[in-house]
Write a structure and sequence with these properties.
The protein is α/β, with parallel strands linked by helices and 324 residues long. It has one domain. Helices cover 46% and strands 17% of the residues. The strands form 2 sheets. A 7-stranded mixed sheet has the order 1-9-8-2-5-3-4, sandwiched between helices.
């Protein structure tokens, strides 16, 4: 179970064997056993990985003066590094929910689920799932407990994409479909899903496109970042309500799925979403932001992109609500 877990058929068979063998253990003991196995294997196969994760997180945090001033950097980096080193255990542990009776009810709590249900009763809903902790778990959690989900997944890094798909397939009794970003018609497929009453889940840090696309300049952590506008375009065209959400881990092997207050489509949508992300980072409640090693994607657009693709406000056609 190396640090960046791969979902080969051989791996999956081995992990299911471990779950079947250890499924009799109480939840805390099961998690601790799996985490120890995962950590030992990661450090054996990739002995320098902890130092590399630590360095990447520190470089990312150092780019943002407001975060440096507000955070306990040492504690933050330690939590982030521990999470990344044992990332695979969360996938295996959550998969155990499918075969270990009542495990999901013991280890997962929902905060704000009624906000999603109220918004769905009123019209289309987009879930903006930030990359905190094992964020993929939100997909199965929403699908099995709240509503059918269509999720936009990354097409740029093939191994995590396979892992994401396996997590989705592993969700018990879940109605989940995936759309790859960068694929033809991704926006149209999301619109169709919203009109069919499905919740659409998007990770706001990621692009809809694999090539040049419009970005919106926003203040974030004392710097200016350039964020993809896809979620704003989809909300404007569909009239959907957007709810930010994330995963917290209040204790080892325990997960809390948190849904924020709804945001309507409009010119301030992206600023509010990334304000939610900024406040969460400063709070210290969810230190494992996976984007620390990748903040250059937000701080700098590729030099060959046309200047007009970075804008200070959304064009009018992306602000007008499409109605419900």
């Amino acid at each position: 179970m190396p640090g960046e877990w791969s979902a080969s058929e051989q791996d999956r068979s081995a992990y299911h064997t471990v779950i079947r063998t250890l499924g009799y253990l109480p939840p805390d003991q099961l998690f601790d056993t799996l985490r120890t196995l995962c950590l030992n294997e990661t450090l054996l196969l990739q002995p320098q990985r902890a130092a590399l994760i630590d360095q990447a997180a520190r470089r990312g945090i150092a780019e943002f003066p407001d975060f440096l001033a507000a955070m306990d950097v040492e504690a933050f980096v330690a939590a982030h590094t521990q999470f990344k080193l044992t990332r695979g255990v969360h996938w295996v542990y959550t998969t155990a929910c499918k075969s270990v009776p009542d495990l999901a009810d013991q280890i997962v709590a929902y905060e704000g689920r009624e906000k999603v249900q109220r918004a769905l009763a009123a019209g289309p809903v987009i879930l903006a799932a930030f990359h905190f902790g094992p964020s993929e778990f939100l997909v199965g959690g929403v699908a099995s407990r709240v509503a059918p989900v269509t999720v936009v997944v990354s097409d740029q890094e093939r191994r995590p994409t396979r892992a994401n798909r396996w997590v989705m397939r592993s969700a018990a009794s879940a109605d989940i479909e995936s759309v790859q970003n960068g694929s033809i018609g991704v926006l149209l497929r999301c619109l169709r899903a919203l009109r069919a009453g499905r919740a659409v889940m998007i990770f706001p840090e990621l692009s809809f496109s694999t090539g040049p696309e419009p970005r919106l300049a926003l203040s974030f952590g004392g710097r200016t970042i350039n964020v993809p506008i896809g979620i704003g375009v989809l909300a404007a065209k569909s009239g959907a309500t957007v709810l930010p959400c994330h995963v917290e881990s209040p204790a080892p092997g325990r997960y809390r799925y948190v849904f924020g207050d709804p945001i309507g489509p409009g010119p301030g949508l992206l600023a509010e979403l990334f304000g939610y992300c900024e406040a969460l980072i400063k709070s210290g409640l969810a230190p494992e932001w996976e984007f620390w090693p990748h903040v250059d994607r937000l701080l700098h657009v590729p030099p060959d992109w046309p200047d007009h693709l970075v804008m200070d406000s959304l064009p009018a056609q992306y602000v007008k609500s499409g109605g419900r």
